[in-house]
């Protein structure tokens, strides 16, 4: 528990200090945001605002996690290493995208194909390793970081897939979540605040899973007892990572809230989206993520519906603009109003996800 508090607190402090430094450095070097010409005209005033702030989120998370482990004298787990690999890997893909935008002074960074290849490569490696049943990824009880069974609040054994199909499912989940957070990162503070709530929820869920862990006695447990415990590897260490990311998002939001002094860019949004998906895989809550991250799902669906309706209707639009937050801006809502109301939607989704998670344990127990 000390490691969780240390990681969260240290990450918060590092991000508040580091983001201030990043704003000065990036502004001095001219690392400013480019704005879409076809976007809301109110956003044109944001042109030149420092971007790539996601670097601070990633670095603060890494430093705070390993510092907390060092201070408490505990060893990092395989699950945490794999989650951080996914976090940093997708953050690197986003960094390349951001850097190309800045270097070439265009709103298009990596080509869509190149970005997809980068995301897929990182996700495939992650998916393979979390299911690998060899040392060092298997604990003394024979538990791997992830399971071949698709899960809701715990593994659904009848949905157990061959390893190739499970890896494909994990890749799709990671791609979907990372792009969903990327789409949500269109207004000041929207993605950072929403992500903070989701990772805060996973911190609580990981602590609960640790307290209700099946542990080393899982083999001897009867069916009724197994229904009330969790076969999750390293839940307490995953809580440390989740707390570190929560603190980083909180600290970054101090400068990213409207009017934003810095943007996280694809560096931050892809990293956070990947970590959300990775957390769902490692905590055996893949399908529950659709509830916890309901705001991200809503944003993604608005884009899918917009594109689909545009093609079917031969040029008509379902929304004034997608993702959905831009639709409300064009209806005349102030940006800060849209952000706060979308935060409220995100909070309801997170509360609903936590409620389902606990209710399942009560019923199952």
From TrEMBL:
GO terms for biological process: cell division; cell wall organization; peptidoglycan biosynthetic process; regulation of cell shape. It is an enzyme of class 2 (transferase). Pathway: Cell wall biogenesis; peptidoglycan biosynthesis. It holds the Pfam family Glycos_transf_4. The gene is mraY. It comes from the Bacteria. The chain crosses the membrane at residues 51-68, 80-96, 116-138, 159-177, 189-208, 236-255, 287-310, 338-359. Its main location: membrane. One of its GO terms (molecular function) is metal ion binding. This is Phospho-N-acetylmuramoyl-pentapeptide-transferase. One of its GO terms (cellular component) is plasma membrane. Belongs to the glycosyltransferase 4 family. MraY subfamily. Mg(2+) binds at residues 182, 266. It is a multi-pass membrane protein. It catalyses: UDP-N-acetyl-alpha-D-muramoyl-L-alanyl-gamma-D-glutamyl-meso-2,6-diaminopimeloyl-D-alanyl-D-alanine + di-trans,octa-cis-undecaprenyl phosphate = di-trans,octa-cis-undecaprenyl diphospho-N-acetyl-alpha-D-muramoyl-L-alanyl-D-glutamyl-meso-2,6-diaminopimeloyl-D-alanyl-D-alanine + UMP. Its EC number is 2.7.8.13. Catalyzes the initial step of the lipid cycle reactions in the biosynthesis of the cell wall peptidoglycan: transfers peptidoglycan precursor phospho-MurNAc-pentapeptide from UDP-MurNAc-pentapeptide onto the lipid carrier undecaprenyl phosphate, yielding undecaprenyl-pyrophosphoryl-MurNAc-pentapeptide, known as lipid I. Its cofactor is Mg(2+). It is found in: Cell membrane; Membrane. Keywords: Cell cycle, Cell division, Cell membrane, Cell shape, Cell wall biogenesis/degradation, Magnesium, Membrane, Metal-binding, Peptidoglycan synthesis, Transferase, Transmembrane, Transmembrane helix. HAMAP family: MraY.
């Amino acid at each position: 528990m000390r490691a969780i508090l240390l990681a969260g607190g240290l990450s918060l402090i590092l991000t508040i200090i580091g983001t201030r430094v990043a704003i000065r450095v990036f502004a001095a070097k001219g690392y400013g945001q480019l704005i879409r010409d076809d976007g809301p005209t109110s956003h044109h005033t944001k042109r030149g605002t420092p971007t790539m702030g996601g670097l601070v989120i990633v670095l603060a998370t890494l430093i705070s996690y390993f510092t907390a482990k060092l201070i408490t004298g505990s060893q990092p787990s395989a699950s945490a290493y794999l989650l951080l690999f996914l976090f940093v890997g997708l953050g690197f893909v986003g960094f390349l995208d951001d850097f190309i935008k800045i270097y070439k002074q265009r709103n298009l960074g990596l080509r869509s194909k190149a970005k997809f290849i980068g995301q897929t490569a990182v996700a495939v490696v992650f998916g393979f390793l979390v299911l690998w049943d060899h040392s060092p990824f298997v604990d003394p009880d024979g538990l791997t970081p992830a399971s071949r069974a698709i899960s809701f609040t715990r593994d659904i054994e009848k949905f157990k897939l061959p390893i190739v199909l499970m890896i494909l499912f994990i890749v799709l989940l990671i791609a979907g979540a990372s792009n969903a957070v990327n789409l949500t990162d269109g207004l000041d503070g929207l993605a950072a605040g929403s992500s903070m709530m989701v990772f805060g929820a996973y911190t609580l869920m990981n602590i609960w899973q640790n307290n209700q862990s099946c542990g080393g006695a899982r083999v001897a447990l009867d069916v009724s007892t197994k229904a009330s415990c969790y076969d999750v590897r390293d839940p307490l260490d995953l809580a440390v990572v989740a707390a570190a990311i929560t603190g980083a998002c909180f600290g970054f939001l101090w400068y990213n809230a409207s009017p934003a002094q810095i943007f996280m860019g694809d560096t931050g949004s892809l990293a956070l989206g990947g970590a959300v998906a990775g957390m769902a895989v490692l905590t055996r809550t893949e399908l529950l993520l659709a509830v916890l991250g309901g705001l991200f799902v809503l944003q993604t669906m608005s884009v899918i519906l917009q594109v689909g309706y545009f093609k079917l209707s031969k040029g008509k639009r379902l929304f004034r603009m997608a993702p959905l937050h831009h639709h409300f801006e064009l209806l005349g809502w102030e940006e800060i109003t849209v952000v706060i109301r979308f935060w409220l939607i995100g909070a309801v989704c997170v509360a609903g996800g936590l409620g389902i998670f606990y209710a399942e344990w009560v019923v199952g127990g």
